[in-house]
Structure to design on (262 residues):
């Protein structure tokens, strides 16, 4: 994604407001006008912490800054995949909270074009525990799906480019919920960077529909709205177990800095 590599990013660090920030954080400042040094320091540390997996990143929404405009930007590239929010959202220092009835956000990220079939992962940091059947993020064309549908009490359904979502044990929805695919025969689900279960589900076709956040994009209609607010959302290429742990630790450090741990 970054042709000059992360070494080039480090080399392009700039002084902003008396402090030195990396290229991604500097671009964030330009796009959002953010001046809060706590937020900027947290984002800068996050940028450094994920340096080994930045090349796998497609979009990161840290939901930092407290308003819809700042929450809309993709930290990895503020010129790509910006959210457009629809319906009833609450934006504050804790992140972005959908109302569960008409709130969703578009991403412009299409699983069929963003990466190869067996190389994708979704991540959503939920703020509350919910037993409702709802979608944190994803798309479904009626036959193939790419989504996160955790459930605190019953079966959770986590699908990456497959015709039948792989189901596994209940996953509480507060914290980082992730699903990753690196093989045609295996999908994996994670909670807070730790593997919860893997399933021998076969990949089929990536849905040719953009991913929604806060609801499931079903043939360009938002359905299965969630009430689980988020402090972070991301799309990467497929991540290994160790990389999922690394990403979680970086995200959790950011949440701690911003004083908004679950």
């Amino acid at each position: 994604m970054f042709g000059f590599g992360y070494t080039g990013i480090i080399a392009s660090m700039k002084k902003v407001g008396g402090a030195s920030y990396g290229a991604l954080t500097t671009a964030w400042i330009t796009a959002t006008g953010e001046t809060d040094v706590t937020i900027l320091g947290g984002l800068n540390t996050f940028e450094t912490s994920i340096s080994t997996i930045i090349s796998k990143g497609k979009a990161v929404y840290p939901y930092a800054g407290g308003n819809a405009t700042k929450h809309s930007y993709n930290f990895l590239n503020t010129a790509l995949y910006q959210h457009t929010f629809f319906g009833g959202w609450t934006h504050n220092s804790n992140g972005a909270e959908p109302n569960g009835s008409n709130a969703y956000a578009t991403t412009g990220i299409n699983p069929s074009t963003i990466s190869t079939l067996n190389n994708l992962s979704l991540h959503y940091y939920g703020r509350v525990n919910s037993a409702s059947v709802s979608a944190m993020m994803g798309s479904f064309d009626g036959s193939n799906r790419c989504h996160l549908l955790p459930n605190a009490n019953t079966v959770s359904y986590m699908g990456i480019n497959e015709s039948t979502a792989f189901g596994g044990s209940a996953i509480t929805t507060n914290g980082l919920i992730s699903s990753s695919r690196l093989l045609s025969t295996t999908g994996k689900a994670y909670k807070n960077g730790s593997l919860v279960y893997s399933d021998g589900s076969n990949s089929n076709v990536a849905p040719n529909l953009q991913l929604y956040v806060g609801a499931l994009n079903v043939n360009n209609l938002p359905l299965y709205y969630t009430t689980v607010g988020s402090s972070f959302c991301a799309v990467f290429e497929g991540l290994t177990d160790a990389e999922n742990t690394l990403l979680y630790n970086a995200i959790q450090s950011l949440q701690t800095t911003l004083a908004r741990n679950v």
